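Thread: Modeling a multi-component assembly for a lab meeting

Hi all, long-time lurker, first post. My supervisor asked me to bring a structural picture of a complex we are working on to next week's group meeting, and I have zero experience with this. I have the sequence lines for every component (263 residues in total). Could someone generate the structure of the whole assembly? Inputs are pasted exactly as I received them:
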Amino acid sequence: MNELHFAFRIRQYLNRGLQQIDTSQLDRLAAARAEALSAQKKPATIPALAAAGYFLDRHLSTPGLRPSLAVLALLIAVALFIHWHSSELIDEMSAIDSALLADDVPVEALLDKDFQAWLKNSQAH
Amino acid sequence: MAKKFAGALILGLSLSFSAAASPPTSPVLITPPQPAWQSLNNAQKSALAPLAGEWDQMENYRRKKWLSIAERYERMSPAEQQRLQEKMRDWSKLTPDQRLAAREKFKEFNQMAPEEKQEMKQKWQEYRQLKEDEKRGQ
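Re: Modeling a multi-component assembly
Sure thing. I ran the full set together rather than chain by chain. Output:
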């Protein structure tokens, strides 16, 4: 009996043994396999931003396009800043104007430079 | 293409810097289109009634400011509401520089003690009387 023949005989015994496993043992093996598969670590999903970055990297690598995109992004940022800044100033004006107009101090008194000078002068004496 | 972008960028930057450096009355303020008089709701029309005639010719940033004032108007006492409406039209007729000067003066006024404020109002009445008398004397 040479080595190859010996291996062949072992294989035959193993195959015969497989067919002789009873159903309860087969069920336990199937359950254990299913459990092992469900516990297997799931592959991580690619985050949306990374996917977008990958897409841009793959599709927008045309020379000249990247600087334009950077300029466009900067322009959008500048426009947003101007809009935000304008809103801030308008809110500030609205707060001062409503307080000023609702107060009983006359606007003319605030604007009259002669009165301001006269007031300072009269307070000095 | 790139040159156009660069031009637009320089324009944008210069606009933003001038907006930051200029007084609040500057027309550089970029405001999205604001509603016409007909589109205002009843509360806004009632609060801003003295401005009805000039509303549709007003710049967007000023309309936005007045709409914000109309919101504050609802929370004011009746006396404050009345004073606001009485002064509204004259205020909107001032030049931007005059409005700016009045705001600066009002900030100073607002920091005074109540008795100082009262004194200034009394002095204003005295001053006006003095001016009236001077006119009559001439």
